[in-house]
Structure formats: C-alpha cells, structure tokens
Design goal:
Blueprint: E1 7-8, E2 11-12, H1 17-32, E3 42-46, H2 51-64, E4 67-72, H3 85-99, E5 104-108, H4 114-128, E6 131-136, E7 142-144, E8 151-153, E9 163-169, E10 174-180, H5 185-195, H6 198-209, E11 213-223, H7 238-255, E12 259-264, H8 271-274, H9 279-292, H10 299-311, E13 325-326, H11 334-346, H12 352-355, H13 358-367, H14 389-392
Parallel strand pairs: 3-4, 3-6, 4-5, 6-11, 11-12, 12-13
Antiparallel strand pairs: 1-2, 7-8, 9-10
Amino acid sequence: MLVQPRIRGFICTTAHPQGCAGQVREQIAHVRAQAPITGPKNVLVIGSSTGYGLATRIAAAFGGGASTLGVCFERAAEDGRTATAGWYNTAAFEQEAASAGLYAQTIVGDAFSRAIKDEVCDRIRRDLGQVDLVIYSLASPRRTDPLTGVTHVSAIKPIGNTFANKTVDVQQGVVKPVSIEPATEDEIAGTIAVMGGEDWALWMNALRSAGVLAPDAVTVAYSYIGPALTRAIYREGTIGRAKDHLEATAHALTADGLRAYVAVNKAVVTQSSSAIPVVPLYISLLFGVMKEKGLHEGCIEQMYRLLAERLYAGGSVPVDEAGRIRLDEREMQADVQAQVAALWDLVDTDNLEQLADLKGYREDFLQLFGFATEGVDYGTEVEPVVPIRSLED
C-alpha cells in the first residue's frame, strides 16, 4: 500500500515502515560513531518503542553491547491500516540487533498490569538472570491500577488559576491565544496516578521480589522541567505535580536500598509534548536558537550522554541540588532562555516562519511516524505488515 501521513490535531494515524526503520538506523549510526560505553550488560526498558525509551535502548545496545528487553504497548498492521510507529521502530531495532549479534527481546502489552510485570520477570529469569539497568519511560493518557482496578485519566491543566497565553497551530502555521481552566482535585489526583511514580515503584518492587534485579542495579525515570514560559501549564500544573511525585519516588526507592534517579531531559518533539498547549511554540523558538548556537540535541544524543557521561563515566553520578540528573543544561543556559523569551514576546502569525524553526518542528513531528526520512521514496508502495522478530519465536 501507499503510505502517506494522515494528521489529526497532534497525532498522525499512519506510520511508514521503511521511514521508521531509517530513523532507527540513523540513531544507531550516531551511537556507533561515538566512543564505546562501558556500562550495563542487561537492560530493561519499560516504554521502549519511541522517544527517549527507544533512544536509551539503542545507546545501551549499540554503544555498550548490552542485551535489552523492551516493554511497549503497540499495534501491528491489520485490516488495511499500518502498524503504529512504535511497532515499526521495534521491528527495525530487533532486526539491527540480530545482525549485530545482540540479544533483543520485546514484550508487547499493558506495562501497568501485573500480568506484564510477571511475564517480564519470567523472561529475565529465563534469558538474562538479572538486569542491571531499568529505564522507566512510559507515556500514556490513562492507567488502570492493577491493585484496585480503577482507571485513572491524566489532564494537562494549570492549578489554581486559568492559564492564558499563546500557542501555535503547527500544521496551519497560525499563532493564536489559548485559555485553559484550572484542574479539579480529581484531575490533579488522576494525573499523579498516571504520570507519577507509583507504577515505577511497583515495577521495581516486582523485579526485586522476583530476584531478577542485580545488587548494583540502577533505575532511571525521565522527566522535564522547562522554562518560566511553560511553568504555569507544565511544572506548576497537573503534570508538574506528577513529576514531583516521580522525584519523590526516586528518593523513596533510594532510601529503600536502590540506586534510583530522575533524569531531566531537554524539550523535544514527541506525541506527548505536541499535546501540551504553548509547548509547540516554545519548542519551535527553542530549536531555532539552539541550532544557531550549535547546541541542539535530539533523543539519541542525550541518551548517549546519559549512559556515557553520567551513569557510567566512573565515580559518583553528577546530580543537582534535588538529586536529579540534568541533561537539559544546554536548553536552560541563561543566554538560550533569554533569547527565546525575547522572541516569544515578538512572535505572531506574520513573523512565525522568520522567528521560529517551524520547519524543524514539523520535520521532527513527521519523523516520529517514519515520514520525512532521508532516502525513503514515499511515492512507492510498501508492505505494511512487518513482524517483530522476538514475537515470532
């Protein structure tokens, strides 16, 4: 079938198998061009199919030769529909890993469930014995608590006051005002239940109880802080409360004898960030400034730095005053933020293309789904059914 992007709001309902594979190969090539990583040998990535989770899996495998077990919730192609991008990413990663002689297995299912946790523990015990790095990189709008059966739903809202600012319609190239009413207490609680650290703690307790966690294992969950521009809707909003809970969970896990960290990453284009008002406009301005200064990074550059320069560089892991690993230090440089803030005051629909890197934002968005990949002929029909090797075994 001929696969073209079908965009609805902040999601794309199609994905291109060859384009996704090309994106995976580009990330692998970047890692192989760097110095080898002396790091983990057996890695579990919870949320392994896109974004930072996929990039960490690639960095660990192709930078350090690690065996990797991934967990994701993706859909195969069926009934004339393409698979999800994460499915194609995973298929491509496993194919490349097999060619390199690397162990790579994937379990597809609801990572929030007890059944998947049990299956993962069994797979680790059978194939790896123990894991020495656990990455928690889940992004989901809802979560069913495996203990209570209650399904919680997250909300992207401010707390206390109505939020009013400007945002951008990325596809139309229009800057427009946005106003969001404050969250209710139930919405705050639901967001914490979905995006906080509760499930991360359940995973770590399940792994430890099953005896499949190495004594010196490290676990990392991913977060974001962001600038003053996005603070009301992000760090001081419902998402921020969830991230506070995530950080508190890291401290609790550490107090319980584990080596647990939260890594604060740079703003990048993801399906999640595209859904947050204000953030796409901020990212478009940020990209332009950081590219101009030679500071721009995507997921793979940061995840290579996380492993090679933070977790496994030798000695203690560098953290900030709150115990967080900071990979957003280039984004948060004073000169970068000052320039973005100045542009924010000026930007409107008429000067958007001149002041912001909207082209780069759109390209990154399309690449999430395997489009805009160099070397791919999107005018040629492709086979949408692509197997994931480990699911065929």
